[in-house]
Amino acid sequence: MKFEEALTKLEEAVKQLETDDLPLEQALEVFEEGINMSRVCTQQLEAAEQKVELLLGVSEDGKPQTTLFDMKTLEE
Amino acid sequence: MENTEQRIYSISDLTKAIKGELEAQFANLWVEGEISNLVTPRSGHTYFTLKDETSQIRAVMFKYLGSRLKFQLENGMQILARGAISVYEPRGEYQLILDYAEPRGAGALQLAFEQLKRRLAAEGLFDERHKKPVPLLPKKIGIVTSPTGAAIRDILNIVTRRFANIHILIAPVRVQGAEAPGEIVQALEMFNRLPDVDVLIVGRGGGSIEDLWAFNDETVARSIFASRIPVISAVGHEIDYTIADFVADLRAPTPSAAAELVVQNKANLIHTVAVLTTRLRNAWTNLLARWRDTLEQDTLRLQDPRKRIREFQQRLDEQHHRLTTAFRNYLVRKRGRFETFVGKLESLSPLALLARGYAICRDAETLHTIKTVTQVEIGQNVLVRVSEGELFCEVKNK
User: Fold this and answer.
1) For residue B147, which residues of chain A lie inside 8 Å, CB to CB?
2) Chain B residues closer than 8 Å to A8 by CB
């Protein structure tokens, strides 16, 4: 799921719980959905790892050919 | 005559000949020079002299053309202008009639820039409807820039300083010179063949307008437009605007700003998600509390009628008891009174009187009770009621 989508769903869940007068079972569903979306968002926020690479080319089947970028080359 | 073979011109002919030659040869030319002696008479036309270090030429810009310029002509201003030589025959003078001018500095480049900008705008390449949204949380960012330039240094500084944890792919390209546009285009195409790059940053650090020129290149503009991946332009300083900025999905004023945009977003998003999650939990807790209250109230309301029913029951029993007791008492009391009454009744009964020896005398015809002697005549028949019978009698005397 895209981050934007999960965030939007989380926002909707919050709004529903805060404003709508839902019956207990429906409210529980909304709450659980919200918690799930919060988890999806957090996972995506935490997932990515820092990596800096140089892109040298892309193979025929769409695979990147890369090499690690040496940050020292930037130091003056 | 010494010069029989030589043609003798009249002044008019000569002037006409010069006019023809000059105006044909200099019908459409670009000229660069400094403005001086500028006057704008009431006609609205602008007359001035264009000069350089050693020469000068008179020039005029007619009102309707002058008003189309995006700037005001001023003394001392260097301009690049387009026009034609015109000879004014009555005075034998020539001058430049200009139809376009722009401030010099980057004159020719500026002209090319304006022209390309106008053309691409007309084609709709800058239209808002083509702008792709830049993802809130890009996981993989492609950067098209020089691997040794100021732009990549600024971007990586910001990204690493803030622990952004972003996967960065750099496509190394030259960002100035004749080769630059081709390399930038190729890099953009390369990134677009990768399936998982979320956003591209295309740019370079500051420099002269000539240095930034690759980003005013038409092929670069078209490949940015064609990119499937959203493109953030980040060229030079805040004041520098390039064609790439206009066609990109988002313009960052500088490469640092582009990096901040991405990184800042992430920090904000962590905060946003945390706040939303807290609100979600609070809303849920509040709902639960509210339901608990309602439940308690409902329970109270449920208990109440049972209690009240018991109370009613008790009252009913009481009332029933009181009622039956009261009725019984009533009956007893009534019975006593009845018996007394019956006794009284019996004592008052005429039959009892008769039994004691009294008699009742009645007129035999009218059956009226006779209480005095005046009620009867002698010889009249009367009925005399005694105990257990009646006597038919005749009054003999009174």
Assistant:
1) 54, 69, 73
2) none
Q: Does B295 touch chain A (CB under 8 A)?
A: no
pTM: 0.56
Strand-pair partners of B204? B235
Ranges in chain B annotated CATH 2.40.50.140: 11-105
Instruction: Tell me the pLDDT tens digit for each residue of B51-110.
Output: 988 899 999 999 887 777 766 788 888 888 999 999 988 989 999 999 988 877 655 567
For the segment(s) B11-105, the CATH number from 3.40.50.450, 2.40.50.140, 3.40.190.10, 1.10.20.10 is: 2.40.50.140
Q: Which of A24, A38, A50 sits opposite B277 (nearest CB)?
A: A38
Return per-residue pLDDT of chain A as tens, 76 residues.
888 899 999 999 999 988 878 888 888 899 999 999 999 988 888 876 778 899 999 888 888 889 888 877 765 5
Residues of A with Cβ-Cβ distance to B170 under 8 angstroms: 52-55, 69
Question: CATH 3.40.50.10550: which residues of chain B?
Answer: 132-268
Q: Which long-range contacts (CB under 8 A, 24 or more apart) does B336-341 make?
A: none
Pairing of strands B381-386, B389-394: antiparallel
Count of other CB atoms within 10 angstroms of residue B339: 10
pLDDT of residue B39: 92
Provide CB contacts within 8 A for B53, sequence distance 6+.
none
Spatial contact of B52 and B79, defined as CB atoms under 8 Å apart: no
- Window 37-66 of A: residues touching B by CB (8 A cutoff) are 38, 41-42, 44-55, 57-58, 62, 64, 66
